[in-house]
Amino acid sequence: MSTLSLGPTPTRRALLSRRIRWFVAATISYNVAEAVIALSAGSKASSTALIGFGLDSVIEVASAAAVAWQFAGRDPEAREKTALRVIAFSFFGLAAFVTVDAVRTLLDATAPEHSTAGIVLAAVSLAVMPFLSWFERRTGRELGSESAVADSKQTLVCTYLSAVLLVGLGLNSLFGWSWADPVAGLVIAAVAVREGLEAWRGDGCCSPVADALRVDGAGPATSCGCGPGCADACCSPSAEAR
Fold first, then answer.
1. What average pLDDT does the chain have?
2. Closest to 149 (Cα-Cα) out of 107, 93, 215, 201
3. pTM reported for the whole predicted model
4. Which domains does the chain have, with CATH numbers?
5. Which is deepest, 67, 93, 209, 223, by most CB within 10 Å?
């Protein structure tokens, strides 16, 4: 005998889909502005970190656009796999660029100039991006959309990059340590590769859809739909309690 946990009602699913479209629109709008400011400030200050941050924003727009395309259709679930592939490639592209940019910065003897605009931009992004990521991830989990959850992780990586950029620009301005942000950027690149692999595999262990289809004997299911072997952060005891 199987146990079936009810997912969102059709009305609730429609509301969640609209929310995701709003989050995606907000993310795209913010990242377009972020890219313009970062690329302009980076070119003026000869900062490869700022230029890299601006190009990362362009990659994030591509990821968010994939989710927007998915939920613009009548059957978003039919477009899920394609959207996940686009998001995965966005992660891989982000990781590749950040790695190349970090190595170039480490090998470049020319230190970037101080950039007040860059520091302010990094601080604002560090304050804004965690909320966009959290709201989209929460909505995506309830809806059972792997692509929305994956895109929220892309936004979370932007939060990490914002912190790296802020620290790097700050250390360079205060102490002349131009090597600080590229070293931390290499760590962020490794995180991006991991998230890209998860998106490519379509890791839906945190999807309530997986929980709704689970039958007795198939393994324990948690409140967020986690199954055996799930290593995602949402499957931790603290996440399940939220």
1. 76
2. 201
3. 0.66
4. 10-203 (1.20.1510.10), 204-242 (no CATH)
5. 67
